[in-house]
Structures are given as structure tokens and as C-alpha cells.
Write a structure and sequence with these properties.
alpha/beta, six-stranded mixed sheet, four-stranded mixed sheet, 19 helices, 46% helix, globular
């Protein structure tokens, strides 16, 4: 009898001791999910996969869960947020969409978090980042990565032509002269079939030249800068390369080699191409022998950078958890992953670029450009303004309209478009 009692008591004691342990294990195993939405296929994206792994290692109580919207991402996000849907905690966002999302109240003002919990880190961030991620002087996003531009040279074409690759301190005059030398009529029909330079006639492809000449495209406040004499002078410089020198292919000529901007360069039909880090993927995949240099110097040394970002949708259920994700994405550890996986250039100066430059010594020009980069101008109604510019400049790039007439046509409507009246 006593033995039976002792066994019963022992069982009760063991059970009592085990219950808290089991409960503790269950609590430890339970993680809070934090949803991150983007336009990327997260199942195949090494940057997102590695960011998830590192985040969960540093935050064992949280689990990142990725969601993808493949097309019309920005429009769909605005609808989701306006409709009060079950929102993700964090969203990927391009810097040119930050003003319109902030203006509509679609993303959360995170200025308090940045200034209270990230202020000591700001000295380690490139100045272009702060400028790109603020609206009305306050933070609405944190950096994903930066795209600065360099000039790519098709080394095979330059070697065949006996034309040396320029020094890093080359100028606009050097650039134009080299583009002329590298433009050739290979089949003798009187028309060029190899060109010195190619740029797609989008805003981000020629804004660098406007700003290098101390002009500009527009301000973030919504004022056109195209009417400035310095802007007109820069546009004329590029137009003359297209129309007078014929060292730049038309869009029709370029498209015959494929839709990507790098296609004519990859096809060996263009000698020089502006591009960012993502361009190197196309060139390496095609086994192109290329050389990198900084952009040619104008009156000022300027590199127009694009900063991709992360933000918190307004209405996200737990902003404090959202901030933990954003703070990690902007951390040194995460930005090292950004660089190592080729996601983009890091937003911080303290990221180790040794291996990146060791792999290709001329990769250093990507990093150096971050020191003098300025953000691509992104006013609230910038998308509408950019569409207006492309429309009015279309015939100008073909020489069928003067630069002055094209700019005047833009300026006539610019104020209304940039203020949202159109």
C-alpha cells in the first residue's frame, strides 16, 4: 500500500515538474509571423532568402513570411491599403513612389522610430539615402539598396578599333569624341551599324547629364527645371550625338537587338552603355569582356542614384514589429547581404566592399559614385510629368523637333501636371 502511494506521489511530482517545461517548450517554439510583401519571386530570390535566414537568427521570436504581387504592384498596394484589407507588416517600395504613397497617407511616417532608434546609425549611411527616403523632411521608408551608375565599355570593340579606354577623369568632350570614333558603317551602305553609345530615352537615362551641367529635371517640390539654360544645353549635347554625330542608335535601331537596354551592347553593336550593378549580370551571363569607368565629368561631378526601399503600410497591425524588420533591413548585416548577393549597392559606408572590389578592381567606381550621388527627383506627381517629357521629347531625339520647342511644350503644361491638375 505504502509503495503504491509513493509511486502515485512520485508520478504527480514528475507531472508537475514536466508541465512548466512542456509549456515553456511550446512557448519557445511559437513564433510571431511578420509578413513582407514585394514584387519579387521570393522562392528564387537569394537576397530575400538570405535576409530571412539572418533576420530569424537575430530575432528568434519572429518569422518572416514573404508575399508577392507580380504585376501592377504599386496600384494594387494602394487599393489594398485604401480598402483596409488585412495588410502585410512591411512592403517593398521604389523611391519614386514614396512621395505619392506618403501624400495619400498610404505608408506610415516612421520619423520617430528613425530618430529614436536609428539615430546613431545615420552617420554610417550615404547622404543620398536620407534625401531619397524622406517626404516633407520626415522619414517614410528605410533603404533596400542603391543603384548608382557607371559607364560600361565593350573591350572587344575598343581593342578591334585600337581606341584606348579613357582614364577615370574623362570629360564630356572625351566622351563625345570617343563615341564618334566608335561609330562605324561596317557594311558600307552609308548608315551606321555600330554605335558609340546608347541610352534609352527615359528620364533616368539622361537626368545625370542635366545635373552634371548644373541643370536638372525637376525638384521634389514639383517645379520643372528643364527650362533652365543649363538643362537645355545638356539636352542639346545629347541630341547632337543622336542627330548630328549619329553615334547613338534610335530606339527602333536599338530594339532590333532585343528589349533590354543592354541588348545592343551585348550584341556587340554599341561600344558604351550607362548602367547600374544589375547591368553586370546581363554582361557576365553573355560573357561580355567589359571595362568600367565613372560617368564622364561635366561642370559638376554628379551621379543620379535610385534608392529602393522598405516601408510600413498605413494600417499595419503592429508597427513596432514592422519597425524591427525595417531596422534590420537597414542594418550593416543586411546591407552586407545586399552587396554580396548582387541585390544592389549598400546604403551604408561601413559595409565591407573588399571582396566586391577584389573580384573586379573597377567595381570600385560603383562604390565611389555613392559619395557624390544625388537622388533621382521624385515629386508627388512625377510619374505624370515624366510621361509628358517622354511624349514631347520623342520627335526631338529624332531631330524632327528642336530642343527649344520640345522644352517649351513641356513647360507649358509642367506646372499643372506637377501640381496634380491634369
Amino acid at each position: 500500500m505504502r509503495s503504491s502511494v509513493r509511486r502515485t506521489l512520485l508520478f504527480i511530482v514528475i507531472l508537475a515538474l514536466a508541465m512548466p517545461v512542456c509549456g515553456g517548450l511550446e512557448a519557445a517554439a511559437k513564433k510571431t509571423k511578420v509578413q513582407v510583401i514585394s514584387w519579387w519571386d521570393f522562392t528564387a530570390s537569394q537576397p530575400l532568402i538570405q535576409l530571412k535566414t539572418e533576420f530569424e537568427k537575430l530575432n528568434p521570436d519572429l518569422e518572416l513570411e514573404y508575399i508577392q504581387i507580380g504585376s501592377k504592384y504599386a496600384d494594387k498596394m494602394l487599393v489594398m491599403i485604401a480598402g483596409g484589407a488585412d495588410l502585410p507588416d512591411v512592403m517593398m517600395i521604389a523611391m519614386d513612389k514614396i512621395p505619392i504613397f506618403a501624400d495619400k497617407g498610404a505608408i506610415m511616417n516612421i520619423d520617430r522610430y528613425v530618430k529614436e532608434d536609428y539615430k546613431d546609425e545615420m552617420a554610417k549611411v550615404y547622404p543620398v539615402v536620407s534625401d531619397a527616403l524622406t517626404y516633407n523632411g520626415e522619414f517614410y521608408a528605410m533603404p533596400r539598396d542603391i543603384t548608382s551608375k557607371v559607364m560600361f565599355f565593350n573591350k572587344t570593340l575598343f581593342d578591334e578599333a585600337g581606341v584606348p579606354i579613357p582614364d577615370p577623369d574623362w570629360t564630356w568632350d572625351d566622351f563625345r569624341a570617343i563615341a564618334k570614333k566608335m561609330t562605324k558603317d561596317l557594311d558600307g551602305d552609308g548608315h551606321a551599324d555600330q554605335w558609340g553609345f546608347y541610352f534609352r530615352k527615359y528620364m533616368d537615362a539622361f537626368t545625370d547629364f542635366l545635373m552634371q551641367n548644373n541643370g536638372g529635371l525637376c525638384t521634389v517640390e514639383g517645379q520643372s527645371l528643364l527650362g533652365m539654360p543649363e538643362s537645355i544645353e545638356a539636352i542639346k549635347f545629347l541630341q547632337e550625338m543622336c542627330v548630328v554625330d549619329k553615334s547613338v542608335p534610335t530606339e527602333t535601331q536599338a530594339m532590333q537587338f532585343g528589349r533590354p537596354q543592354s541588348a545592343p551592347f551585348v550584341a556587340g553593336k554599341v561600344a558604351m552603355l550607362m548602367g547600374g550593378l544589375s547591368t553586370t549580370v546581363d554582361l557576365m551571363n553573355a560573357n561580355i569582356d567589359y571595362v568600367i569607368r565613372p560617368l564622364p565629368k561635366g561642370k559638376s561631378q554628379v551621379n543620379v542614384a535610385f534608392v529602393n526601399a522598405w516601408a510600413v503600410p498605413s494600417g499595419a497591425k503592429n508597427p513596432d514589429l514592422s519597425w524591427r524588420v525595417l531596422k534590420f533591413f537597414a542594418s550593416k548585416e543586411a546591407q552586407q547581404i545586399v552587396l554580396n548577393t548582387g541585390m544592389g549597392l549598400p546604403s551604408r559606408k561601413d559595409v565591407d566592399t573588399t571582396d566586391f572590389v577584389k573580384a573586379r578592381p573597377d567595381n570600385k567606381y560603383f562604390i565611389e559614385a555613392l559619395e557624390y550621388s544625388k537622388p533621382f527627383p521624385s515629386p508627388v506627381y512625377g510619374v505624370d510629368f515624366f510621361a509628358l517629357v517622354e511624349q514631347e521629347f520623342d520627335l526631338m531625339w529624332l531631330g524632327e523637333r528642336s530642343v527649344e520647342d520640345a522644352v517649351a511644350a513641356v513647360e507649358k503644361k509642367a506646372q499643372d501636371v506637377l501640381s496634380g491638375k491634369f
